[in-house]
Design goal:
This protein is mainly beta. The protein contains one helix and ten strands. The longest helix has 23 residues. The radius of gyration is 37 Å and the shape is elongated. About 2% of the residues have low confidence.
Length: 321
């Protein structure tokens, strides 16, 4: 092979190698795919709609955002004003042939179907509430924390300010709460709770957990769904009811201060009046109707026949009636 032909073949080889590199580098692969952007026809980048809205893409056309923008002149969702005319069957008005706003006509949905669409239509009195089909609209006098309220019937844009600065979720008793995160003018109602072990078997007052004032005494009662019952009459201590009171219940203090327990099905009844010794500590107490009492108890009681029951790990937290 002469020198000129050799040079020619070397040139061709180099040319093909360079061409191959250029061609292959132009192919899309995992290293050079075009990243997510506002022109890829995909809903990404936090976009509100495909390739628009969100933190980096151009704003979406308000006439195509599936929202009612009355401040932009829309008569209803994405229609009217600067947008196209509204379909009479979906224009937020009661048109001939409709039973309610945008419902009940030949091409309209049934009115009860509109109670969750975020629009004031159908027979609703407010947005998705009121009327014969939807849930009642929240009011500032219904005794329920609903609507935009921040407490029961208070706070938010429509109701009077709440008379407490308490936080119903912080694990503290603040504001005018009756106990930790419950009761008062803003927090949910306090629910009575009592639980105990009898000879090692756990019971709870899931059928009843109550506290009432009987003269100057607080009477606790707990009934489990399995019919086991426990109760205490807590006489007022000499210095009055105070947080941290330790109450002893035995034959020396009964009947003014006493405890009783009835086994499942009434198989046996025990009481400190028959013997035994119970100790109760009041961790928190506000005596009287509308007050609250919480604490712990443990010890033992006896039946009239001298049988013994051991009560342990007793706890209670109950509003007082």
């Amino acid at each position: 092979m002469n020198k000129s032909l050799s040079i020619f073949f070397n040139f061709v080889t180099v040319f093909l190698a360079i061409t191959s590199i250029i061609f292959m580098s132009g192919c899309l692969n995992d290293d050079n795919l075009i990243g997510e952007n506002c022109y890829d026809g995909e809903l990404n980048n936090g976009e509100e709609l495909v390739d628009c809205g969100g933190p980096i893409c151009p704003p979406c056309d308000p006439c195509e955002n599936n929202l009612w923008d009355p401040l932009l002149g829309e008569q209803w969702v994405d229609c009217g004003g600067d947008c196209g005319p509204c379909d009479p069957s979906f224009n937020g008005q009661l048109d001939p042939g409709e039973l309610g706003i945008d419902c009940g006509c030949e091409d309209c949905p049934a009115c009860p179907e509109l109670c969750g669409d975020g629009l004031p239509n159908g027979f609703e009195e407010g947005t998705d509430c009121g009327g014969p089909d939807c849930e009642p609209c929240p009011t500032c006098t219904d005794g329920i924390m609903n609507g935009d309220e921040i407490g029961i019937d208070c706070g938010g844009p429509d109701c009077d300010p709440c008379p407490t600065t308490g936080d119903c979720t912080n694990g503290l008793q603040d504001g005018d709460e009756a106990y930790i995160d419950c009761g008062g003018s803003s927090c949910p109602e306090c629910i009575g709770q009592i639980s105990w072990k009898a000879n090692g078997q756990l019971f709870s007052g899931d059928a009843q957990a109550s506290a009432t004032m009987n003269g100057t005494s607080i009477v606790l009662a707990g009934v489990s769904s399995t019919t086991a019952q426990i109760g205490f009459t807590i006489g007022e201590p000499a210095g009055g009811f105070m947080n941290g009171n330790v109450i002893t219940m035995n034959t020396a203090t009964a009947p003014g201060t006493a405890g009783a327990y009835e086994a499942v099905g009434g198989a046996e009844t025990y009481s400190t009046a028959n013997g035994g010794n119970m100790t109760m500590q009041l961790n928190y107490v506000v005596p009287g109707a509308g007050g609250y009492v919480s604490g712990t108890f443990s010890g033992n009681m006896q039946s009239a026949g001298g049988m013994n029951v051991t009560i342990s790990q007793g706890t209670f937290a109950i509003p007082i009636n």
